[in-house]
Amino acid sequence: MLRVLAIIFSSLFSICKTEELKGPMVSKVAEFDSYWQKGKAEISSYDLFQARYGEMHHGEAVIIFETEDFSKTKQIKQDRFTPEDQKIPVLKMNMTKSFNTGIYPYSMMISSFVPAGGMVPWQAIKISATVNEWKGQTYQQLSQDIGHYNYKSNSYAVGDQIGTIDRYMTEDAVWNLIRINPEALFHTDSIMIIPSLFYCRLNSVEVKPYLAKTRHLLLDSGNRVYHIEYPSLGRNIYIEYSVSFPYPIVKWSEEYKDNSSPSQPQLTTTAILKKQIMIDYQNHQSTNDQAWRDSLDLKYRMDPDSVLEDSMSLDIRSR
Predict the structure, then answer these.
(1) Cβ distance 85 to 115 under 8 Å?
(2) Please, are residues 7 and 15 in contact by the beta-carbon 8 Å criterion?
(3) Pairing mode of beta strands 169-170, 188-194
(4) What are phi and psi of 24, to 5 degrees?
(5) In 3D, which of 149, 144, 174, 182 has the Cα closest to residue 13?
(6) Closest CA to 247 of 177, 153, 170
(7) DSSP reduced 3-state for 11
(8) Do β-strands 210-218 and 188-194 pair in parallel, antiparallel, or remain unpaired?
(9) Rounded to two decimals, what is the model's pTM?
(10) Measuring CA to CA, how many Å separate 107 from each of 66, 134, 208, 256?
(11) Following CA atoms 200, 202, 203, 204 in sequence, which dihedral angle do they give, to the nearest 10 degrees?
(12) CA torsion angle 178 179 184 186 (round to 10)
C-alpha cells in the first residue's frame, strides 16, 4: 500500500510558484562515477502490458542507460573534432517498446540526454522519439536552447511541425534523474511538466508544458515511487525504483484515457522488470552474441545456424 513519505526538502525543493520551478542545479550522488564510468551500459528488460485501442497488448520494453560525452553545440555524441570546452558528460537513456495490435506491430524508441557531470541542470539537453507502425512513422525532438526548447515533428499523420516550447521540466528526463540523484525530484502541488513524447504521440496531445502534481511515495516493500499527476489530461504515471544505489527502475505504470478509443474504459499500461545486466553491448554484434538476449529473457531471437542455411538455399535458388 502506498503512503506519502514525510520528506523535508530544503527551500530549493519546497513548494513555490510554478514559474520558479523551471529547474534547480542538483548534484549527482557520490557513487555515480564508480558505477557508470566503466565503459559499459546497463540494460534492463521488462514485461510490457500496453494499453492501445481500448485493449491490453503484451509486449517487451528495454531500457539502456549509459554515460557518454555530448557536444554542447551540435547536441550529438562528441567526436574527435569536438573541442574540450564543448564536451559535456551525459547519462543517456534509450527506451524501446515493442508490441502488436492485432495484425500489425508497434516499434517505439525514446532517447533522453541529461547532463551528469557534478552539478547538473534539471532539463534534458535533448529528447527524441520515434513511433513506427504499419500506418506510418513519426519522429519528434526537443533540443535545449536559451530559455526554451526547439521542437520539431515529422509525422505521416499531421505533417511536419517546428516551433519553440518553454523550457520546463520534462517527464522524459525523470528516468535519468532517478538514476543520477532521486533526491532532486520535486514534491509539489504545482509544477509545469512537458509530458512524455510517447504519450503525446499515441494520444494526439499537444507537446507543451501542463500543470502537474508530483509525489514521492513509499511501498511496503521498501521501494519508492515517483508519481506525476496531470489533472487536465486525466493522466497519472508511477515510476517505481529501489531506494539503494544505483536506484534501478523495477516497474512503471500509466493511467489515462486512451484517445484512440474514447468510448472504452480507462486502462493501465504497466511494465515489470525481468532481467538486468551491465555489458559493453557495442562489442557484441555477432550472431554468436545472441545468447546475451537469453540472459535478458528477450523473446525475439534468431538462430545463427538457420540464418546461414536460409542464406545458402537462397543463394542456390538465385543461380
Answers:
(1) no
(2) no
(3) parallel
(4) -85, 175
(5) 182
(6) 177
(7) coil
(8) antiparallel
(9) 0.85
(10) 21, 10, 24, 21
(11) 70
(12) -10
The whole-angstrom separation of Cα 230 and Cα 211 is: 6
Q: Distance between CA atoms of 238 and 269, rounded to whole angstroms?
A: 10
Residue 316 has pLDDT above 60, yes or no: no
Contact 70, 77 (CB under 8 A): yes
Residue with cell 557513487: 31
Rounded CA gap, 96 and 316, in Å? 37
Say how far apart CA 77 and CA 95 lie, in whole Å: 17
Q: Quick one: pLDDT at residue 224?
A: 97
| Amino acid identity for residue 212 in this structure | A
**pLDDT band of 264, cuts 50, 70, 90:** confident
Q: How far is CA 196 from CA 72, 251, 293, in A?
A: 23, 17, 27
DSSP 161-209: EEEEEE--EEHHHHHHHHHH-GGGS--EEEEEEEPPHHHHHHTT---S-
Query: 204 pLDDT band (50/70/90 cuts)?
Result: very high
Report how far residue 243's alpha carbon sits from residue 159's, in angstroms, rounded to the nearest whole number.
Answer: 43
Q: Please give the Cα distance from 319 to 230 (Å, whole number).
A: 61
3-state secondary structure of 318: coil
Side chain identity at 48, as an amino acid letter? L
Query: Residue 149 and residue 6: Cα distance in Å, rounded?
Result: 34
At position 303, the amino acid (one-letter code) is D
What Å distances lie between residue 55 and 58, 261, 297, CA to CA?
Answer: 10, 9, 25
d(CA 243, CA 265): 34
